[in-house]
Structure prediction request, 285 residues.
Amino acid sequence: MDETKFYFGRISFKHQLQGLDDFAEGAEEFNKVDRIRERLLKYTKSTEPVYADEDAVWRFGRVEEHGETIIGRFGKVFTDQPMQFDDDEKDFVQSDDNEEIADVSHFIIYPSKNVIAFNRKKHIGHKQFVKVFAAGYGNFYGMPEGITISLLKNSIEVEELLSVAERIHELDFDLVPTNPIRDDEMKVLDEPMREIGADEFSIAAESETGSLNPRNSFVRSGFALSNNGYGDFKITYEVGGETKFYDSRDKPATLEIEEPDGIGGLRVSSETIFNQVKQLTISED
Prediction:
């Protein structure tokens, strides 16, 4: 079986999860994780295409609950090859030798962490997956930009960069608030974002003669938020007299494992994938 690469994205909801019914007399106590699971399960269980581009439609196949997670397949069916999807089985068709005919990614959603793990395919890049998954959610619920997905970063790689940087010339952070988070380091910037009601928050710092301090609490908070999928950063730094540039958007965290053999194979791989999720994330309240 071939190897495949999994990516990890933080799902941020840009709309209220609570509705008027939640405030009605006698309503059950609101549980955010349950509501997130409910919203995402309903979306991924859609039996109709959720997004269309020039030559294909995107749809879900074989979605089910697996423990506390939602697992399934998301891919595109080319308009000139409608037999790639079986409407009766609600799943993508495989050839006689069990090869995928359509371009299909496997995914696992962790509602308690607001994280989705998915693998890229030959014609489904990681950036395309998160863009289409989020756009499909907006189409399904009739709310453009209902969610955004930011790829998680490798914090170890960032720490290694900071350890060798002799000077830091520029730092740019584009951040979003959490849901909220318990982590003290992240709270340094997260709480001010919440206090002023910001949906997005940008910081740009530059030093022409000296070096920016990477251990400053604001800077550390920006890195922590970005690594956990609440934004991105760009850094211009110097090593051995050479100026280098790092853009976190181009450095997402990944996990290489054996390609899952359908949904059954995804279940088998789910523990390995979850172990990576735990290493990359900080749990939310």
